[in-house]
Amino acid sequence: xxxxxxxxxxxxxxxxxxxxxxxxxxxxxxxxxxxxxxxxxxxxxxxxxxxxxxxxxxxxxxxxxxxxxxxxxxxxxxxxxxxxxxxxxxxxxxxxxxxxxxxxxxxxxxxxxxxxxxxxxxxxxxxxxxxxxxxxxxxxxxxxxxxxxxxxxxxxxxxxxxxxxxxxxxxxxxxxxxxxxx
Length: 182
Fold this sequence. Notes:
Radius of gyration: 15 Å
Strand content: under 5%
Structural class: little secondary structure
Helix content: under 10%
Shape: elongated
Order of helices and strands: HH
Oligomer: single chain
């Protein structure tokens, strides 16, 4: 599906776009609040400054997506692939990023207030200046992540998330591939 068809369907009231292929689509600045993109392929897409609040992206492929300045508040991003994604200044307040793969993602100055990042993989991510106030980071991996200036006030995080000293047996992540299979 191309970006224009998606926007036409959304304008007509459609909100169900699960498993759609929007690889490298340009949706910069669009308003797609409340849409369902579960298991969709949006890899390489431009969603910068888009309003995606309340959207469902569970198990979607968002590899190398541009979400800079996007509003993803209260979005479901559980088990999503955000490897290499640009989330600079993104609003991820109250979003569900449980078991998300954020390796090498750029989250500079992102707002993750009250976000659920439990069991998220964030090794190599840049969280410089990000606000993680009241965020849940239990079971997440922030080893080798850039944390300079990040605000963890009131966050649920233990030494094991930072040091990686506890071996996490029994955790099985399912990542969607670029082709949409899992």
